[in-house]
UniProtKB/TrEMBL annotation:
This is Spore germination protein GerD. NCBIfam families: spore_GerD. Gene3D superfamilies: 1.10.260.100. The keyword Lipoprotein does not apply. Residues 179-198 are annotated as: Disordered. Keywords: Signal. Pfam families: GerD. InterPro entries: GerD_central. Residues 179-189 have a biased composition (Basic and acidic residues).
């Protein structure tokens, strides 16, 4: 009897333990299902509204600003460190990377240069540089350079063969011819009116 009781108690404990483990595994949700559920919630109007409310909270805004300052400081420290300098030096050795980087910065550089060209202080510096005797000598030397002359000749030839340039020159010549004819007619009319009065 004791044996039967122990056997029943033991089987009862095993059954409870087995069922308890199955319940635990059934309760634990799958990661992908949880992820999908969260994404679905965030896509709803209520989810969007909740995010907007959270982003509107002053404490969250302050935390984001602090995080931005930390990010900025980290980037500055990374760029100015020896490892950062070595990384950028190696990265710019790759012509494709250098080209893409230059293209991405081109618009900002153009804005900066245009702003500098309007700056009187910058203009004065450029004038000083151009009036420097060494700079004048360098420019003259470059202009006498065979490669520069060949490049200049190529640019001039391309410009003259351009249909737009040809159209502009033709327009200018036509206007000049019309002005000359108009002036000649006036002088002829003035001359004939003087002859009639005499």
């Amino acid at each position: 009897m004791k044996r039967t009781f122990l056997l029943l108690a033991f089987s009862y404990v095993l059954t409870l333990t087995g069922c308890a483990q199955q319940e635990k595994t059934a309760v634990q949700p799958d990661y992908d299902q949880t992820k999908k559920m969260v994404v679905d919630i965030l896509k709803t109007d209520e989810g969007k509204k909740a995010i907007q409310e959270v982003m509107g909270d002053e404490k969250v805004k302050q935390q984001l600003v602090i995080d931005q300052q930390i990010v900025k400081k980290t980037i500055e420290e990374t760029l100015t460190s020896d490892k950062g300098k070595a990384f950028w030096k190696k990265a710019f050795e790759d012509p494709k990377f250098a080209q893409n980087f230059a293209k991405s910065m081109q618009e900002e550089h153009e804005k900066l240069l245009k702003a500098l060209m309007k700056d009187p202080e910058y203009q004065a510096m450029i004038v000083d540089i151009m009036q420097n005797p060494e700079m004048k000598k360098l420019i003259q030397t470059e202009m006498k350079n065979k490669d520069f002359r060949a490049h200049l000749q190529k640019v001039i030839t391309e410009t003259f063969s351009s249909p737009l340039f040809k159209a502009k020159i033709e327009d200018i010549l036509m206007k000049a011819a019309e002005e000359m004819q108009g002036g000649k007619k006036k002088s002829d009319e003035e001359g004939s009116s003087e002859e009639q009065t005499a």
